Amino acid sequence: MDEQKLFTGTQEVAPDRRFDIGKLQAFMEEHVKGFSGSVEAREFKGGQSNPTYALTAGGERYVMRRKPTGVLVKSAHAVDREYRVMTALGQTDVPVPKTYALCTDESIIGTMFYIMDHVEGRIIWGNEMPDSNPEERTAVYDSMIKTMAQLHAVDHVAIGLETYGKPTDYVARTLNRFIGQYQLRETKKIPEMDKLAEWLPANIPPDSPPAIVHGDFKLANLVLHPSEPKIIAILDWELSTIGDPIADLACHCLPYHYGPDIEGGMRDINRAAMGIPEEADHVAAYCRYAGVPDMPNWSYYMAFMLFRHAAISLGILTRAEQGTAASDQAFKMGARAEPQSKAAWDIVKHLE
After folding, report:
1. Can you give the pLDDT at residue 326?
2. What are phi and psi of 14, to 5 degrees?
3. Cα 101–57–235 angle (5° rounding)?
4. What is the pLDDT of residues 158-178, one digit of tens each?
5. Are 311 and 177 in contact (CB under 8 A)?
6. Which of 32, 92, 175, 351 shows a CA-CA span of 20 to 30 A to 181?
7. Local confidence band at 261 (pLDDT 50, 70, 90 cut-offs)
């Protein structure tokens, strides 16, 4: 699957995601500073869980993200949280789109939404950056890890995010949630999952100082400068919270542990020839930018994050078997659980 072709650009708004353009026009006239002209909308192709639209009006370009319609999981699709964190980070040197307005009135377009700036740049689908070259890849990966360190360095209390998440026990709370879900809906017996569910809670390292964590910090959620190998915006803040920055970094490094059986896996590619740093070098670069000497308990965090994602994969598999998730893709994603849990247990075996 060529994700770059599949997900790049815009298309006409699908019938089930259309809305009253006149009501949006009236809202933007009242709430978006400097707005003029008549608004036109198209939707981005990407794989967003929150429908995202490209808006044009008066020679300006905007982006609108909204909650999907229909029955939703209570805590999911929190576009108001996305708006809150990006607005707060707009006070810092962390690159985020400028936010204009949040609308909680569902009578306007049917669901909550917000308007932000359209950042002109490139979004690269594929960790191997297939249309790039070694020099650019090295520079992009360096900019990516520098940007993550910048994010984690922000004082969340100073910018008004003291209530954005719980600052302690991030790993313990996450394990409790996903172990509970796994044990409740286990449909496929994976011995490594049972071992991890026992070992991980018994070996939790001390808390790291809390930070704003993105939750899905990857190349496809970043905007690159149109011609330079530099990150100019971080997108898709749906999973962000206050949490453990090492866990956020571990999530970012998961592709190093994935083979070709998982989309985006970098374990088996020739990273040196491609200009992509090795995991240890990538982590060392983070430490350098973050001003810390090393990364304590790194192997634990990788095992923890692999387990978390294996549990998520099993949840998708369960929904597919119950007929509540799109079958083909869901079964494919559910199949990730076994290699993810095996990779996690391999790490643990080397720790014992």
Report:
1. 47
2. -65, 150
3. 50
4. 999 999 999 999 999 999 999
5. no
6. 351
7. confident
Residue reference for tokens 């890849």: 137
Q: How far apart are CA 22 and CA 20, in angstroms?
A: 5
Can you give the residue ranges of every domain in the chain?
3-117, 134-351
> Quick one: CA dihedral 4, 76, 96, 313, positive or negative?
negative
Q: Please check whether residue 121 is in contact with residue 143, taking contact to mean a CB–CB distance below 8 angstroms.
A: no
> Quick check: 127 pLDDT over 80?
yes
Q: Where are the alpha helices (DSSP H) in the chain?
A: 3-7, 21-31, 79-89, 134-153, 170-185, 191-202, 245-252, 271-274, 279-290, 298-321, 327-334, 337-351
**Whether pLDDT at 85 is above 60:** yes
Identify the CATH number of the domain defined by range 134-351.
3.90.1200.10
Band of pLDDT at residue 72, cut at 50, 70 and 90: low
Q: pLDDT of 50-71, one tens digit each?
A: 889 999 999 999 999 998 876 5
Coil, strand or helix at 246: helix
Domain 3-117: CATH architecture, name and number where available: 2-Layer Sandwich (3.30)
CB 260 within 8 Å of CB 126: no
Q: Are 14 and 52 contacting, i.e. CB atoms less than 8 angstroms apart?
A: no
* Helix, coil or strand: residue 292: coil
Do the Cβ atoms of 144 and 218 come closer than 8 Å?
no
Report the candidate in 349, 338, 278 with the shortest Cα–Cα distance to residue 309: 338
Residue 192: count other Cβ atoms within 10 Å of its Cβ.
Answer: 22
* Sign of the CA dihedral running 46, 237, 141, 174: negative
Backbone angles phi, psi at 89, to 5 degrees: -70, -15
Rg over CA atoms, the chain: 21
User: With contact defined as beta carbons under 8 Å apart, do 80 and 102 qualify?
Assistant: yes
Dist CA 129 CA 13 (whole Å):
28
26: which residues sit within 8 A by CB, 6+ positions away? none
Estimate the crossing angle of helix 191-202 against helix 298-321, to 10 degrees.
Answer: 140
pLDDT band at residue 241 using 50, 70 and 90 as cut-offs: very high
**pTM of the predicted structure, to 2 decimals:** 0.92
